[in-house]
């Protein structure tokens, strides 16, 4: 099933309790890019927009197989609806064994199947071509699932805040692990915010200049906001630059590549079918570039990154 790109929304977009927009004119839609487009065109589009939404770059069946593998691992925790197909990711709506859920979730980012997925030939080929040489995948990788009705969303931020000890030529890949229409709360991007992110990081660099090295690279130093976020009120961020939040109906097989300065966040999962949103965010850079050593460890809750 192909999901239409632009459409009229008949429900409010909410992020951390704040409406994302006052009117339909305050939002727009991501523009998809063909992965097979000429390299010069891909570079130009990335520089101008701060992102590439690569439609169908990955094998859909492989993505859905990993989705099924992930949710099946949680069968005994109470997370899934009873007797449901794990590939659907149907939420039970019930309390879960949190300790068991946390253990399995942390195991999942260490699975060999997950590592192999992150090194999918399609991803490696794209980045080796796009970056013009050997690449490295940062070890700290995150799988995120969001239950319907969860009011906690990813606030607005740009990734370099958490990667300051390495190169700013680092590329984030956000991959939907299953179809994620807008109703399920996928990532939203602030239009033309790559420029704003660069300006903000330059200002933070001046403010942080007198701090120790450890404090300068921290997203949680005294000059940063709570959690290192740019802001929880996404509508206010859009007003700041006179921009719009760009939405998308993502499909399994898609991958978004975004700049470390591109401001993005997420919205509530309001899927009427009760499906959980599942996605992963992973980061690549040239092998020869300096990497942030803090990202050479597996992700764990509380690692302060």
UniProtKB/TrEMBL annotation:
Keywords: Dioxygenase, Oxidoreductase. GO terms for molecular function: 2-oxoglutarate-dependent dioxygenase activity. Pfam families: PhyH (PF05721). InterPro entries: Phytyl_CoA_dOase-like. This is Phytanoyl-CoA dioxygenase. It comes from Ktedonospora formicarum.
């Amino acid at each position: 099933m192909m999901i239409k790109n632009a459409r009229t929304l008949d429900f409010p977009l909410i992020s951390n309790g704040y409406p994302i927009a006052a009117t339909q004119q305050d939002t727009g839609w991501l523009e998809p890019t063909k992965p097979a487009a000429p390299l010069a065109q891909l570079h130009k589009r990335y520089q101008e927009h701060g992102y590439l939404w690569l439609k169908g770059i990955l094998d859909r069946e492989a993505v859905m197989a990993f989705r099924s593998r992930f949710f099946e691992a949680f069968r005994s925790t109470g997370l899934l609806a009873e007797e449901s197909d794990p590939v659907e990711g149907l939420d039970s709506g019930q309390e879960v064994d949190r300790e068991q859920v946390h253990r399995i979730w942390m195991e999942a980012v260490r699975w060999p199947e997950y590592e192999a997925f992150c090194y999918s030939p399609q991803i490696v080929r794209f980045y080796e071509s796009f970056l013009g040489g050997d690449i490295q995948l940062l070890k700290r990788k995150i799988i995120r699932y969001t239950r319907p009705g969860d009011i906690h969303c990813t606030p607005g931020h740009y990734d370099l805040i958490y990667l300051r000890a390495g190169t700013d030529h680092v590329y984030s890949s956000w991959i939907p692990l299953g179809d994620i229409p807008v109703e399920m709360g996928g990532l939203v991007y602030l239009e033309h915010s790559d420029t704003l992110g660069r300006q903000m990081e330059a200002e933070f660099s001046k403010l942080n200049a007198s701090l120790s090295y450890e404090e300068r690279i921290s997203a949680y130093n005294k000059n940063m906001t709570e959690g290192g976020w740019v802001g929880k009120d996404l509508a206010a961020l859009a007003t700041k630059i006179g921009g719009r939040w760009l939405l998308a109906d993502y499909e399994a097989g898609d991958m978004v590549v975004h700049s470390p300065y591109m401001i993005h966040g997420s919205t509530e999962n309001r899927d009427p079918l009760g499906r959980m949103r599942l996605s992963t965010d992973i980061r690549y850079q040239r092998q020869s570039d300096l990497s942030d050593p803090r990202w050479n460890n597996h992700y764990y809750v509380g690692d302060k990154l």
